[in-house]
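Side project, low priority. Logging it here so it doesn't get lost.
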Amino acid sequence: LSLHDALPICVMPKSIFKFGQCFSWVAFIAAAGYAAVQLLQVLNLPAWPTDEIAIYGFSLLIAAPFMLAMTALHRAMPEEKRLWSMAALLFSVLYAVYASLIYVVQLGTALPLAITGKPDPIFAVNRNSLFWAIDALAYIAMGISMLVAVPVFERGTWMRRFFLANGLYTPVIAFIYF
C-alpha cells in the first residue's frame, strides 16, 4: 500500500506527488536521526556538545521538509478536502517557525556561548524557560497539523491511522511540557 493509495481519488500531477514524497522522506530521515541521537543520549554515549549539536541539528532538519510535505499534501487535495489540508498546512508553518527559531538560536548562539565557557541562562532549554515553551509550541503545532490532516486521507488507510495516532498524542506532549 503506497501513500498514493491513502489519498482521496483526485488528479494529482506527478510533480506534486514527487515533491511531497521527497520532502516526506527528508523529514522522516531527520526524525530517525533525532530518535537515534535521543537513544544515544539515554545511553550516555555522545559527549557534550556533540549530543546537543546533533539533537538540535536533526530537529531543525525536520521542520522545513515537514512543512513542504504538507504543502504538497494541500496542493494535491480536491476542493472538498482543502479546508482540512489548509488548516494542516497553517499549523505546519507554525511548527516550522517555532522549531526553526529555537534550534537556530541553540545552534548559532546558545551552544557557541556555552562552548566558550560563557553560557547565558536566557538561552536555557529547561522546564519553565522561554525556549522550553517555544519547543512545546512547536511540537503542539506539529501534532495539531497532523490531527487536522486526518480527514484528507481515505478511511482505513495506514496514513490516516498514522496521522491520527500522532495527532492524538499531542495532549500528552502538552502535559509533559506544561
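Brief comment: The chain has a mean pLDDT of 94.
Revisit when time allows.
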